[in-house]
Amino acid sequence: GAGVSQSPSNKVTEKGKDVELRCDPISGHTALYWYRQRLGQGLEFLIYFQGNSAPDKSGLPSDRFSAERTGESVSTLTIQRTQQEDSAVYLCASSPGLLEQYFGPGTRLTVT
Amino acid sequence: GQNIDQPTEMTATEGAIVQINCTYQTSGFNGLFWYQQHAGEAPTFLSYNVLDGLEEKGRFSSFLSRSKGYSYLLLKELQMKDSASYLCAVREGRGSTLGRLYFGRGTQLTVWP
């Protein structure tokens, strides 16, 4: 079956512009996660959605970052007024429960 | 909070055995995961430990000691395709925060012929 998909795969934007990243989780997966991976660094947790519960936003680095999820399907991560330090690969993962997380291929964001 | 430490790089020879260590400091420990990440690709799940002891899955095994805040990933009969970054991740939390994972920086393993 289809895995987690993300779009776009690459995004180059100018400093100060807003960007929107999309994640399509595996059908039926109730949990969805966003992570950020800077070059040579580990994965940094951003936000976690679980069913209809309030999302865990504790990893969002600033109020320029926000994310939404429609039911148990698509999620969008929005970064407003992008800065050069936002350049990273943004990874989305989904999970049917509390064990294995299935990762998407990521969106590579470059802020010039 | 959490503090996850693993070696940055390791090298080994094809056919050999390698052990990748991970130490962590955390409150509310609720499981330890190992992921494999090839360059330019997404991480893929390898193993999960929540109780002390060894979990074996084919050529890969993972060990956990909660009292020592220590885990290792053991790779046997190394193959060239095992060259990748290996990520140690700790799950911490209760209730609505239970799903969150904290990742180490990863250990880049290079397997030589």
Terminal CA distance of chain A: 37 Å
- Strand tally of chain A, please? 10
Instruction: Supply the helix-strand structural class of chain B.
Output: mainly beta
Q: Which two chains form the greatest contact, residue counts included?
A: A-B, 28 and 22 residues
Contiguous runs where pLDDT drops below 50 for at least 5 residues of chain B: none
Number of helices of chain A: 0
**Biggest beta sheet attributes of chain B:** 6 strands, mixed
Query: Distance between the terminal alpha carbons of chain B, to the nearest Å?
Result: 40 Å
Please give the share of residues in helix of chain A.
Answer: under 10%
What characteristic shape of chain A results from the CA principal axes?
A: globular
Strand composition percent of chain A: over 45%
Helix segment count of chain B?
A: 0
Please describe the structure with a list of short key phrases separated by commas or semicolons:
heterodimer, A: 112 residues, six-stranded mixed beta sheet, 10 strands, 0% helix, globular, B: 113 residues, mainly beta
Describe the structure.
The complex is a heterodimer of chains A (112) and B (113). In chain A, strands 2, 4, 5, 8, 9 and 10 form a six-stranded mixed β-sheet that branches. Chain A has no helices and ten strands. The mean pLDDT of chain A is 93. Chain A is mostly beta strands. With 113 residues, chain B is mostly beta strands. Chains A and B meet through strand 4, strand 5 and strand 9 of A and strand 5, strand 9 and strand 10 of B.
